[in-house]
Design goal:
The chain is built from 16 helices and 20 strands. It is an alpha/beta fold and 465 residues long. The protein has two domains: 247 residues, Rossmann fold, CATH 3.40.50.2000; 209 residues, Rossmann fold. Strand 13 and strand 14 form a beta hairpin. The structure holds GDP-alpha-D-glucose. The site of GDP-alpha-D-glucose (GDG) has 19 residues, from strand 15, strand 16, helix 12 and helix 13.
């Protein structure tokens, strides 16, 4: 941390997130999961000799240090009961639905809360044990909202940042949580709080003021118990260059053409790609497609829908219900409109490898991204980046963070069934003279707002001295 001839070394960067960026191989070793976020942060962690802290995803695991990509990954073990109560319980049955406009009922169980407190404390102790002096600690997401406060009590020399990948709800919803003040107090232990949209930042500031009397002393600067906390919007993005590179290869083009032919060479391929989550609006989208077929506004011989629904949180009841409902809708629509050998909805409850997903994006003439609420939605950005041909139409819910940046998409309120149907028809019928300038504008904007830009803007504030 020495200051040599006016040159200040960057602080070592420690990342903590619920999950470590690795997966266990069949031989017991580990391989890195190569997401955009990992790629964006890894170089800084490597260069600064920092570290990564998180859970391996295994029940009843043990604490271990995994060497990967030249950095140390420190696992935080969770018992099976903690996975049920902290992860599936408080994080995904209490916070997740509430933070997404309470579109499903949240459970409020004190045993889940107690586990959340314990696990957050364990993360804080782990980070406190390994963070080099003066480190910058970047915490991620709703699983770890108490870590800033716990860490601050143990290590006053580190800078603490937290970024929320999902929406932060308005006070009217947030205040339902019996432990709302504890959560806000936990977050106020940070130096920098980042949100996807400015609305999330405003919602947090309102909650901090109302519940704990924190005051906003300047734009995006909150004062609480003698400290200032920077609160702002940092919209996340993707590794645009990497997507473009992968999308423009010959193998991708060939696979993309093959997919079209396998689907029976339809005039228009409509596409949905989502985790099978009730926030993503998959059911409403399928129903709109089915209604358009029923009404003869779409034609099963010319229009097909491919829906990839990736398995997720299968232990949580709301997700089991959602899957049953979606599969029933798919069955009903195919029952009415498929022909032998030609389903009108191609539904895959699977995780596709990236080298299959990208050709699918390229094959998709109309991308349907219709969440009821979504922090950002990277699928929308990936679709735009993959369309190196400058063509394709994006139908995008107003209730996503991505809608702030991708205004040339066909923006739609997914709760408005009639509008949703009309917008799908508009997308299907849009002339290339209108499609291309819209896609070009979105591609230009995306090129200047990559995941690297996102990481840099947050780190610039976090690394301050
Ligand atoms: C949270 C917030 C925010 C999906 N299916 C497959 C697959 N995916 C990949 C996509 C994309 C990612 O998963 C999904 O990202 P989203 O942003 O759409 O949504 P969440 O998972 O809910 O993410 C969200 C995000 O955090 C980042 O801050 O944008 O608002 O909810 O990258 O490509 N990837 C592969 N096969 C699949 O079948 N390989």
């Amino acid at each position: 941390m020495g200051n040599v001839e006016g040159v200040t070394e960057p602080r070592p960067l420690v990342i903590a997130a619920n999950r470590l960026p690795v997966m266990r191989n069949s031989d017991g070793g580990w391989s890195t999961s190569p997401g955009g976020l990992v790629r964006a942060l890894l170089p800084t962690v490597q260069e600064s000799k920092g570290a990564w802290v998180g859970w391996t995803g295994e029940r009843d695991g043990v604490a271990e240090v995994i060497e990967s990509e030249g950095i140390e990954l420190h696992s935080v073990p969770l018992s099976s009961n903690e996975v049920d109560r902290y992860y599936e319980g408080f994080a995904n049955d209490t916070l997740w639905p509430l933070y997404h406009d309470a579109i499903r009922e949240s459970g409020y169980h004190s045993a889940d809360w107690d586990a959340y407190v314990d696990v957050n404390q364990r993360f804080a102790v782990q980070v406190a044990n390994i963070a080099p002096p003066g480190a910058a600690v970047w915490l991620h997401d709703y699983h770890l909202q108490l870590v800033p406060g716990f860490l601050r009590e143990q290590r006053n020399d580190v800078r603490i940042g937290w970024f929320n990948h999902i929406p932060f709800p308005p006070l009217e919803l947030f205040q339902r949580i019996p432990w709302r003040s504890e959560i806000v107090k936990g977050l106020l232990g940070a130096d920098v709080l980042g949100f996807q949209r400015s609305r999330g930042a405003r919602n947090f500031i309102a909650a901090a003021h109302q519940l704990l009397g924190a005051t906003e002393i300047d734009d995006d600067l909150v004062h609480y118990q003698g400290r200032n906390i920077s609160v702002g919007a940092y919209p996340i993005s993707i590794d645009v260059a990497d997507f473009e590179l992968q999308a423009s290869g010959r193998a991708t083009r060939q696979r993309s053409a093959q997919i079209r032919s396998r689907l029976g060479d339809p005039e228009v391929i409509l596409l949905g790609v989502d985790r099978l989550d009730y926030t993503k609006g998959i059911g409403g989208r399928l129903r709109a497609f089915g209604q358009l077929l029923d009404d003869g506004r779409l034609d099963p011989e010319r229009h097909v829908l491919v829906q990839i629904a990736t398995p997720t949180r299968e232990g949580v009841e709301h997700y089991q219900d959602e899957r049953r409902e979606i599969e029933q809708i798919v069955g009903e629509i195919n029952g009415r409109h498929a022909r032998l050998g030609f389903p009108v909805i191609h539904y895959l409850y699977q995780t596709l490898p990236l080298d299959e997903l990208i050709p699918l994006y390229r094959a998709g003439d109309v991308m349907l991204v219709t969440p009821l609420r979504d922090g950002m939605n990277l699928v929308a950005k990936e679709y735009v980046a993959a369309h190196v041909d400058g063509d394709g139409v994006l139908v995008l819910s107003e209730f996503t963070g991505a809608a702030d940046e991708l205004g040339e998409a066909l923006l739609v309120n997914p709760h408005d069934e009639q509008r949703l149907q009309d917008t799908i028809v508009q997308a299907v019928e849009m002339h290339r003279h209108e499609r291309r300038p819209r896609m070009e504008a979105m591609r230009d904007r995306l090129a200047t707002a990559t995941v690297g830009d996102w990481a840099k803007s947050f780190l610039d504030v976090l690394m301050e001295r």
